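hiii, so i know i said id send this last week but things got crazy w the move. better late than never?? heres the sequnce for the chain we talked about at the cafe, plus the structure i predicted for it. fair warning i was half asleep when i ran it
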Amino acid sequence: MTTTTLPAQPPFLKRQIFPGLAISTVLLAGIMVLTLALHLINIQSIGDANAYYTAAVQSMLKSWSNFFFVAAEPGGSVTVDKPPLGLWIEAAFAWFLGVSGFSVSLPNILAGVFGIPVLYHLVRKYVGELAGLTAALVMALTPVFVATNRNNTMDGMLVFFLLLAAWAFIRATETGRARWLMLGIFIVGLGFNIKMMQAFLPLPAFYALYFLGSKEGWFRKTVNLGIASVLLAGVSLSWAVVVDLTPVDQRPYIGSSGDNTVMGLILGHNGSSRLFGGFFGPRDGGGQSSLQANQSPLPGPFNPPGMPLPNDNPPRGNAGGPPQEALAACSNLTQGQSCSFTMPFGTVNGTCITPPNLAELACAPAGMVPQTGGIPAGGLGPGSTGGGTPFSQETGSPGALRFFTQPLSKQMSWLLPFALISLVLASFGARIQLPLRSGIHKALLLWGGWLLTCVVFFSLISGIFHAYYAIMLVPPLGAVVGLGFSQLWNWGSKGIWAGVLLFIASAITIAFQWFASNQYGEWSWWMLVAGILLVVGGLTMFIMKRPAYLMILCATLIIPAYWTVMTTVSNPNINLPTAYQGTAQPAGPDGLDRARLQDGPRGQNVNRELVDYLQNNTQDVAYLVAVPSAQQGAQLVLDTGRPVLYMGGFGGQDRVVSVQDLANMVADGELRYVLFGGDRGGKQDIAAWLNTSCSIVPQFSNGNIEEPRPPFAGDGVDQNQGQQPGRDQSTVLYMCQ
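okay and structure toks below
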């Protein structure tokens, strides 16, 4: 085992308050208490949290099959578009505490709180207590860290697993024992089964730390990393292989996969779509539905006898291109004419153009038609804006300044300038030797590599990128800030120049914080306190150097601390977790104020008359109702606990069932009602069948029905953006007998 010489540490941190209780331990405990408070204050405001996942947890507790396959609804017709481990953990908590927004978010809250001491110990390993405490405090006061953990999206859980993996890689580097390397890889593989390839982002830094930091021979390290990579693939794909080898008639349809396989989900919706964009969700006909096999995957009385079905007509749209609705809108028009079409997220107005690689016109949303007349890189999907990048209203457009400008700068960038300066300063902390001997360089490689990999990756991708993904940068951000501050503290004994560097780095950071705050219309006189404290700290440095350093550090933390507190006390975005929006709320491409389209607690947006009607008239059938997608069904699942058939999966684009499946289910007494809205997801065949084989329930059609607006968006988009809240004028309830 190698030993690392730590930089000189402030003596007061080791001072004993009581025997065995150092000040550093008390400060760490205080940061944990602060973190817990920030995570729990106003927690009731999250309601059901992300109802798509909460409904899935409720469904998973209905049967072991639903649990294993992470069924999105109790009938087990379709899975969630995520791997299982995070939802398994949430379901375990809900088993003991009951299903609620709080119980399914609690694992992430605990991951956030206990991630604080893990980060402290990992940073302390190489650069001491001061850096560790600074890193822990920065992580606790980063807005996106709190916002994401106060939700049942699984990113906070993933970050905690990756911190544990970092611990194992550090052990492997210091001991030279392959078992620790394999443990680290195993934990990363578990992380893959929480959020798929997002778990691989720190891997370059992990591999580099072991390869350049361990004292083993180069050949042996290469072999060990090769074996570890094979293990990583095995652990990561274990669940996927088991599911894909299961006959489709014995499992749910794999949501958002496009071909009814987990590998299709990994490579498509959770793979290439994250990098390069494309219209949300796969197209119809991407794969055989579960209910097209000889029997449905539903257990017991849910099994209708099946029959071979004719192939569905192939879709006219192409993956990543315009949806069916955009093509149909221009079927009788000419190039350049105005057009409009309706999607689950609202009505889109635009102009007919000829998309690349297609010989027919498509309706491109207004503001998205380039001079070439082609489809923008972001496609015509939900979440796209005038910039052509999916969800750019949430994360901006790709580019080097993405993390420094609205709308992404409010998430975790408040101390990013200081962190980037720290990376440069820390590189001069010691003489470079291979294998690396300096703890500073090992920390720089691990945390700096993790941070830069994420910054570059998220700055460049043009696909599906949500603001809460920025939590991936929070641990390395805190570690690098702690590394830089500790390094300057250590250099402070050599001359005043270190204090000058600290002052300059902090001044640049605070100037950026003022600039960022102004971007969101948030400017108050108290923000000048950060600047005043900085100036006072700079002047005090000539009298009391060490208190001045701490004063300057506090100055850089004032504005991010405020933003974090406001994230906690303001109404949360439970659809897509995000930091405090500020007072200037940016409107979306349709002119709607997104911050005002928030959802309340369970049942607030459910049409009680509709629910009562369905409950009273479906006690003798398995399904409460069939709906176009989880967007319309998740809140019904939470409100009733009944199976709700998501015909199109999460976003309406999956082919979970066919017309023949629906007809069989009606004939077998499993399904009686279908809630359908026009041509949802391009399913013209279902719309035609409903019009010819079913009757409309007059009191629940068109303007007489308020469709449930579930408080969630998963990894897609709020499908009701662009509509009047709670109302879909095209929704019709059909009775099929």
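btw Residues 101-140 form the longest helix (40 residues). thought thatd interest u
miss u guys!!
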